[in-house]
Design goal:
By secondary structure, the protein is an alpha+beta fold. It contains two helices and twelve strands; from the N terminus they run αβββββββββαβββ. The chain starts with 8 loop residues before the first helix and ends with a strand.
Length: 202
């Protein structure tokens, strides 16, 4: 009868290191390909999301479907977002109609308020699409900020999305630097997980 050999300390350590390496690899792979955590850096999404709140971002769904109005999305803005500048000359009574060609490396989080083909204008911090005021119960409106009243319509190009923060008087967004192309989208925020008192779906 053959006796069983005790596992050596060296073999046990190697097994532990392998398990940890595989678990770490899976975690990093999930974050890179499926779900990514994101910390809210500014007041632009108040009252929906507070500074320091954390959300999980679905990186998969936009591979199969386009973002829709109302989605809260993490994305790379145009480089104009770094300097609050538009990609083209335009009236100071209209939102920015086109972004700069280059992409910023900063991650932003905003809400999709208009999609390709929509005609958009802003009054009192509220969005009007194709002449109709949108139902936006989640926003903090403002009729005094410099980009809260832009009565001249622009048309969003196909394959682009107009992004705005819910805190309309405290958000630098597409009003200043234009709609963004779909290829710059990172993913849709779908749940908030920190702090514990704010856990819930978006």
């Amino acid at each position: 009868m053959l006796g069983t050999k005790k596992k050596s300390g060296h073999g046990g350590l190697l097994e532990l290191v392998t398990i940890v390496a595989v678990a770490l690899g899976l975690a990093l792979g999930i974050q890179a390909l499926i779900v990514k955590p994101f910390r809210i850096p500014s007041e632009s999404m108040v009252p929906t999301l507070a500074v320091g709140q954390r959300v999980l971002v679905d990186r998969v769904s936009f591979r199969f479907s386009e973002p829709d109005r109302g989605d809260i999305v993490v994305f790379k803005p145009p480089k104009g977002a770094d300097t609050d500048s538009c990609g083209v000359e335009h009236s100071d009574r209209s939102p920015c109609p086109a972004p700069t060609e280059e992409r910023s490396e900063t991650n932003f989080i905003k809400r999709v308020v208009a999609v390709g083909g929509d005609r958009v204008r802003i009054m009192g911090g509220r969005v009007f699409i194709n002449g109709r005021q949108q139902d936006e119960p989640y926003i903090r409106p403002d009729d005094q900020c410099g980009i809260c009243n832009l009565p001249e319509e622009i048309t969003i190009p196909k394959g682009h999305f107009f992004m705005m923060g819910d805190n309309r008087g405290e958000s630098a967004d597409s009003r200043e630097w234009g709609p963004i192309p779909e290829k710059w989208m990172i993913g849709k925020a779908f749940v908030t997980y920190w702090p514990p008192g704010k856990i819930g779906t978006l």
